[in-house]
Amino acid sequence: MPQPVALVVETSGSSGVPKRVMLPADALLAGAAAADGALSGPGQWVLALPAHYVAGTNVLVRSIAAGTEPEVLAPGHFDPTAFAEAARRLEHPVRYASLVPAQLAAVLDAAAGDADVAAAARSFAAVLVGGQATPASLVDRARASGVTVVRTYGSSETSGGCVYGGVPVGRTRVEVVDGQVELAGPSLALGYLGDEARTAAAFVDRDGERWYRTGDAGTLSVEGVLTVSGRLDDVVVSGGEKVSLGLVERVVREQPGLGAAVVVRAPHDRWGEVPAVVVGESGSLDLPGLPELRAVVAAALGRAAAPDRLVVLPELPLLASGKPDRRALEALVAGGDAARN
Fold it and tell me: For position 264, what pLDDT does the model report?
């Protein structure tokens, strides 16, 4: 008997057309149980993300499963002080929060000059960080400050994060098939509402098990630890060479002042397409120069991967989910509406 749909969640559409993902209650509860098993058990949450995206939905589902009431931040601009105040209102001994990397960076920046924010950040049993690539330097900085950070990987199609620190949680299974990350387990979605073709392409049966093709490129270590390198379709051909923008972004974000930078494709008269680095002014202090940045990326990934330009905007356009709006950034860069450095 088909499972009934409990919830329809729209994907954020940061790099493509949003999809409406159908999630049954069993999948949502399986994801909550897997998270509890991988962390410190049921607890109380701060809701700092939009509830209509899967990361925010998960905070609500896990709160319901735990029998606790989350502290909800006001929508709009993220305020580290308000986040700390919400953390202090939590009553359960086991406390959690789920943030995107930009929010975690804002908390750490505020904590450097505010002991109350620092204490609040350290009070969580775990701060889950996902939604986009999280720079290793940001995680190291958080842990050095005494904040327990867990990097998560998943999507709306998997009821949110199902891989923590590269390791699948609960009954989640991970395989890499022809370079693509595929996920299986009880937290998978039923498919896409009103889109049978996309459902058939993304969800496949193999050896009696249902798998979700993520569209992400990745590798599995001998120990079974997953490393995701970016989107399979997020590749430019520059001068005849394929360049993964995800890999370029990973290298760029490890450089001073570029922890929140976004790498997008840009047209080029000679090379066809090239990587372009875009950063908001708030994160642009002590930026490396473009020649220095090009040298670092070229040393790591080859000359074709070196960014062609470094663009500084007053602020990065964001989706409601808190992720950078990559399509808007590509349009700005392609249209010449952004100042180049």
Answer: 92
